[in-house]
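Revision sheet: structure tokens.
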Amino acid sequence: MTILLSDPRLIAVPVADNDEPLVRLGPDFGPARALVRLGLAARLEQARNRLPVGIGMLVVEGYRTPAAQQAIIDQYSADLRRRHPQARHAEIEQLTSRFVAPLEVAPHVAGAAVDLTLFDVCGDELDMGTPVDATPEASQGRCYFAAGDISPDARAHRDLLAAALGAAGLVNYPTEWWHWSYGDRYWALLSGEPAAIYGPVAMPSTSWELARQGVA
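Predicted:
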């Protein structure tokens, strides 16, 4: 059974933040140069090293500010309310959490999650069944990692991604094949850890602060 990010068990997971800084991923992970926690960056390197020669990881997004997270929540939940005008507030919250996490437990806001895909030796993204960030509605559910109605190539590519990231200690949010996290509340719950090691972080506001944290 899929555990959604709106599940009350998530907010009950304690956070013991280890104060690791945000660091910027190198250009070999793609032009986004996403910010992630230091420990997550190291695990992404481990995962990439497990991929076959000629296959790379393209990280589309890492750290997200609380304001950016709330904007996605607001936009998607508004769309859902238009689609389901009779739905109760709790139902909309649950549906929303398939695609974007509630602010209080959001892995991206903790610098603990990445949205990513794979690319080949020519720099072309591999077929994963849907684009990154395809909603359940737009993809007719094909965004779910275990979706059955995707091509054999897409299934093989998802499995390749999962094998590399899972071996490095990351966990997938099963409604989004591209979303993987480490150290957040969702990771702790699925991994049986007593607490999350990453909680919400404030984005450094100046270039001096970024340099002080070792961010390129």
